[in-house]
UniProtKB/TrEMBL annotation:
GO terms for biological process: protein folding. GO terms for molecular function: protein disulfide isomerase activity; protein-disulfide reductase activity. Residues 149-275, 355-479 form the Thioredoxin domain. Gene3D superfamilies: Glutaredoxin. Its EC number is 5.3.4.1. This is Protein disulfide-isomerase A5.
Length: 507
């Protein structure tokens, strides 16, 4: 008798074999199963056992679960989710639970999920850091689902708004170049970031205008917040959000800078587009009504003799400044000199030969240490190679981070010979790491996450002054206790900057 796989393979190839005709009645039970296996990506984890599901949630911190009333009901969703799983590989996990079989039915009941109550017989639930997070109720598209799994707490995509149907949504540099090449109509393009408040306030007006001028003008939007769009931001001088650029026949002409514009304002501007008006020249500080004495060569010496306590600011035309100091309850007199015109006085006070400031101290990343400094593009791949990795997410300006860096660096030095252990750091202040830090649940500095072969295991949530680092080594957990700023390690290790206490616990 032919095997089910043979029937499946020959049937799907359109072959006719008389020998198989006697087994045609088997097709209703065999063929759907082989079809399903062909559609579903191996990246989707099918779960039926409660223990397996608990383990999945314990070892993965970003899981989207498809619950279905039957395998047939899951068919359409699994096709889409197979593509999603490939797109978020290493960053998110897709799982499927078929509530129709006996074992899975118990799991669905345990999780209090009944997909048969849903119109299409399926329900999508998201789990974050081992616990239920939210029901997925956004657009059932590849782009929306990938965006959700990359940032489960982020705002929906602009294109998910039904009112934005007439906006041209651009996803890549390739799409942008294609649009500029083929579009003959005038184009107004908003470069934006999804978190930008001004962008969000402008979007409804932009949407309404796009509908009203449809066919005559093109209004488009492009989220360029990600580091992959640095080249585009440089080309179009995107220094803040939103940046709105006007194009004719694919060529950039100038910016639209009315960030409080209504739909009517945008439409009227498109009828007669004009570059931004140049800023009015700044009124000289000396002509403003203020409490500062503005001195010249003619009265400088006389004024300083009459007022023994004088604070003088030598400046060149720029933003106005005003200083007010009190010293021993006596108001000092304030004076300023227009440096660009009073070079003689500057020379007298040696303003032209200042000492060069000392060079800045090297950053943590620039120093030679055993800490691995990671960024968004190499984060997951680097951690996959390490059995135990402790990652410190930090900002250079953070006082707690500055206190932790010496201890973290010393710990990395102690384990530098062990290739299975890594101490890594991510600078969340860098724009290219913003998405990564948000994805890894960083909501304060420093944040310490422990990973096992690239999979998030645990976040340290204790006092920042006492950091416990769990490093699983064979069947033993090594607990390193970094406490205060002193040292005393007994006979285990001699190290001049960190107190380390070692305990061994069986796991």
């Amino acid at each position: 008798m032919p095997k089910p796989a043979d029937i499946c393979n020959q049937y799907s190839c359109g072959l006719f074999n008389p020998i198989l005709m006697s087994h045609v009645l088997l097709l209703p039970t065999i063929f759907p199963a082989c079809l399903l296996s062909a559609k579903m990506s191996p990246l989707i984890e099918k779960i039926s056992d409660q223990k397996d599901f608990k383990k999945l949630l314990r070892t993965r911190n970003n899981v989207l679960v498809l619950y279905s009333k039957s395998s047939a009901a899951a068919d359409t969703s699994l096709r889409l989710l197979s593509d999603v799983a490939q797109a978020v590989k290493g960053r998110g996990t897709i799982s499927w639970i078929d509530c129709s079989d006996s074992e899975s039915r118990k799991l669905c009941k345990k999780m209090k999920v009944d997909p048969s109550l849903k119109e299409k017989g399926v329900e999508l639930l998201h789990y974050k850091d081992g616990a239920f997070h939210t029901e997925y109720n956004r657009a059932l598209t590849l782009k929306s689902m990938v965006a959700f799994l990359k940032d489960p707490e982020g705002a929906p995509l602009w294109e998910e708004d039904p009112e934005a149907k007439d906006i041209v949504h651009i996803d890549s540099e390739k799409e942008l170049k294609r649009l500029l090449k083929k579009e003959d109509r005038p184009l107004l393009l908003m470069f934006y970031a999804p978190w930008c408040g001004v962008c969000k306030r402008m979007m409804p007006s932009f949407q309404q205008a796009s509908t009203e001028v449809k066919g005559m003008y093109v209004l488009a939007g492009m989220n360029v917040y990600s580091a992959e769009f640095e080249k585009i931001k440089e080309e179009y001088n995107v220094r803040g959000y939103p940046t709105i650029c006007y194009f004719e026949k694919g060529k950039f002409l100038f910016n639209f800078e009315n960030y409080g514009a209504t739909a009517k304002d945008i439409i009227e501007w498109l009828k007669d587009p004009q570059p931004p008006k140049p800023q009015a020249p700044e009124t000289p500080w000396s002509e403003e009504d203020n409490a500062v004495y503005h001195l010249t060569d003619d009265d400088f010496d006389k004024f300083t003799k009459e007022h023994p306590s004088v604070l003088v600011m030598f400046y060149a035309p720029c933003e106005s400044a005003f200083f007010l100091f009190f010293f021993q309850r006596r108001l000092w007199h304030f004076a300023s000199i227009l440096t660009s015109k009073k070079k003689k006085k500057l020379k007298h006070y040696s303003i032209f030969s200042p000492q060069a400031p000392p060079p800045p101290e090297p950053t943590w990343e620039e120093r030679q240490t055993s800490v691995i400094h990671l960024a968004g593009e190499d984060f997951r791949e680097s951690l996959k190679k390490k059995k135990h990795a402790l990652v410190m997410f930090y900002a250079p300006w953070c006082p707690h981070c500055k206190n932790s860096i010496p201890h973290f660096t010393t710990a990395a030095e102690l384990f530098k010979e062990d290739r299975k252990i890594a101490y890594a750091a991510v600078d969340c202040a860098k724009e290219q790491n913003h998405d990564l830090c948000k994805q890894e649940g960083v909501d304060g500095y420093p944040t310490f996450n422990y990973y096992n072969y690239g999979k998030f295991i645990e976040k340290y949530n204790g006092d920042r002054g006492i950091l416990f680092v769990w490093l699983r080594k064979k069947k033993t957990s090594i607990i390193l206790l970094f406490q205060n700023h002193t040292l005393g390690v007994g006979n285990l290790v001699s190290c001049p900057s960190v107190q380390l206490s070692f305990s061994f616990l069986n796991i």
